[in-house]
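A student in our group prepared the protein record below, which I am reviewing. Thanks in advance; the entry in question is below.
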Amino acid sequence: MDKEVTIYDIAEQLNISASTVSRALNDHPAINEKTKKKINQTASDLGYRSNLFAKNLRAKSTMTLGVMVPKLDSYFIATVLAGMEKEANQSGYNLLITQSLDSAVKEVANAKTMFNSRVDGLLVSTLSSADDVNHIEPFLKKGIPTLFFDRVLDIKKIPKIVIDNFQAGYDATNHLIEQGCKKIFHFTGDLGWNVYRDRYHGYLKALADAGLEFKENMLFVTDLRLEASSGVSQHIIDLKDKPDGVFVTNDTCAASLMVSLKKEGLRVPEDIAIIGFNDDPITRIVEPRLSTVHYPGEEMGEIAARSLISHLNGDTKVQLTNTIVLRHELISRGSSLRLKGE
């Protein structure tokens, strides 16, 4: 009962050669459709399983793309993976997905797992805040195509897919300024990561261009967990000179902050205007609806997987050497619209 069924068992059952069985199971054109159907039905009846591992080793390909992300519990990452899965499936590839859970040690271990699993290509959104790619080097030395997306490192030899986070941060802040905000706080994540660092610099530039002052107490750097918004909310409540606008680089924290401030009697957007980032579903179910920056996650996943697969398939038009910058979009809703008529 425990014996693995082989092509020889199928051949013996049908009194034909093993080579004929092998060709039929691989849909070889030399085998007629009637014979293919008979062989495939017998294989199914006997419980035959194709040894993909051995087959892929012979072909020197596993038809698998490795995907490394910091966490799987975010809507943005879910949309990116959906885009990757769509493209991979259409091309006959599978995805091997790992998360680091914000642990540098685990990210290194995940990279080793990917390498030992012989993935054909690697897609990485890194948690590293330094330009350290020691755990990626084995892939580069082996010639395994590697591509960064979203959270990237400034390594010229590794291509990247991003949005213009500087401009997105500028646009979000400038939107609040256009709505009459004069004292705008920034609630963000680890500035060692490119996404938060670039949005922060865009925020500073927008303030400077508008002639608005920035003070250190206007910046809140947190882990962007949901509970972090409670601390930020309490700090704002305790201030005598409160901000009239807040730019948050995470929709979940922005929505949580808005709810907390409203409970304390502050009106949104009249007393304090709020804008988030990513365009998560929560932006459309809180009241007022949350202004945000749309981050094209699914498109990013599709382009990342498509680029890697095209490269693996020998498409000479695809060169994995450049940075692809996707377009973001500012979406203004009730949480930030303070001016009448908007």
The mean pLDDT is 89.
